[in-house]
Design brief:
Structural class: alpha+beta
CATH class of the largest domain: Mainly Beta
CATH architecture of the largest domain: Beta Barrel
Number of helices: 4
Number of strands: 19
CATH topology of the largest domain: Elongation Factor Tu (Ef-tu), domain 3
Shape: rod-shaped
Strand order of the largest sheet: 2-9-12-11-10-13
Largest sheet: 6 strands, antiparallel, barrel
Radius of gyration: 47 Å
Strand content: 35-45%
């Protein structure tokens, strides 16, 4: 009997222990994961019982630096004057008075067309004019002696004017057989030879005034208010590396290109040695001015979206400051309004900063 009661007590104790373990496991499962310390306990490492820690950011100081206010563009060169010479009448080329590439003065004779017919017409008109003048002189003497009427005198005067006009017409036709340079310039490569029969309007040769060249280029419409004739330009050409040429802005097209929102500009470039030629590709640098105390900051410090602003560090806190920007140079941008020399601004990490939030500068200062 005693042994039987002993076994019952052992079984009862085992069941009670099993029940306790089950209850304990249940309570563990019900407890929330990651539960914090008891209410009222201070958090380790956060003084003040739960205040947010400062955000780590990179800070730079705003300093005045020299700045050349400029804009760059690409363009092409054109002759100051350019024309393709064409005859006004058909005929055979009787003489060529230049060699390809010669520099000719204004009025220099370049081509002579066969002018036999025109010269004969001029001689005929001159003979008729001489007869009309003699007749007019004789009729004036007869009219003074009252041998002829006023009407006869008027008829001879009209005949004289007709013959004078005929001579002028013959001279004009003869002049059209002589093709001359319209301005000082360099002739190109002719497309005809001596003895060729050319038609009216056929291209003979081009002539280019390259003592001064036109530089045509385009700029964004944002520069329109700053473009004034007389601004200085620096021009470089890939064909002449290391050399810089000076030009001056001559004109700005009043029409803005609606497709590209750009402005056509033209500058004049002296070219006395003819080292540059029309059609060349050039790079243009337009200088608006120089400032010795421009405030330049990293472009990544600027926060866009809505109002353009930066975060200035004041007494350990970030303060959003609206700014107005100017020229951009190699990853830096000029601040025209909003900052002063000596201000410290956030250059990295501002994406996680709010206005008035505490910050901790790290890295470069």
């Amino acid at each position: 009997m005693g042994t039987k009661k002993h076994r019952i007590w052992i079984i009862a104790l085992a069941l009670a222990g099993l029940a306790g373990l089950t209850v304990l496991a249940y309570l563990v499962q019900r407890a929330p994961l990651g539960a914090g310390p008891a209410p009222g306990a201070a958090q380790a490492g956060k003084p003040g019982g739960g205040a947010a820690a400062p955000v780590s950011v990179e800070v730079v100081e705003v300093l005045p630096v020299p700045l050349v206010d400029e804009v760059a563009a690409v363009g092409s060169l054109k002759s100051n004057e350019s024309v393709v010479l064409r005859p006004e009448l058909a005929g055979r080329i009787a003489a060529i008075h230049f060699r390809d590439g010669d520099v000719m003065r204004r009025g220099s004779l370049l081509f002579s067309l066969d002018s036999g017919i025109q010269a004969a017409e001029l001689q005929q008109a001159q003979a008729s004019l001489a007869l009309a003048r003699a007749t007019q002189q004789r009729n004036e003497d007869l009219f003074q002696k009252k041998f002829i009427s006023q009407q006869s005198l008027d008829n001879s005067q009209a005949a004289l004017k007709v013959q004078e006009a005929a001579v002028a017409l013959a001279e004009a036709r003869l002049a059209r057989t002589r093709i001359r340079a319209p301005f000082d310039g360099m002739v190109g490569i002719r497309s005809v030879s001596l003895g060729d029969y050319v038609k009216e309007g056929q291209a003979l040769v081009n002539i280019e005034d390259i003592a001064t060249l036109k530089v045509d280029f385009r700029l964004p419409e944002a520069y329109l208010a700053r473009l004034q004739p007389g601004l200085n330009l620096e021009v470089t050409a890939d064909a002449l590396p290391g050399e810089t040429f000076q030009a001056r802005l001559a004109a700005v097209d009043p029409l803005v290109d609606a497709g590209g929102r750009s402005i056509s500009c033209r500058a004049l470039l002296p070219n006395p040695e003819a080292r540059l030629r029309p059609g060349m590709f050039v790079r243009v640098r337009l200088v608006f001015g120089e400032r010795a105390d421009a405030l330049m900051i990293p472009e990544q410090a600027v926060v866009t979206g809505g109002q353009t602003r930066v975060f200035r560090v004041e007494e350990g806190k970030a303060r959003a400051v609206p700014v107005r920007l100017g020229a951009r140079r190699e990853g830096r941008v000029e601040v025209l309004e909003g900052l002063r020399p000596g201000d410290r601004i956030i250059s990295a990490g501002q994406q996680k900063v709010r206005d008035g939030q505490a910050v901790q500068p790290v890295g470069r200062q």
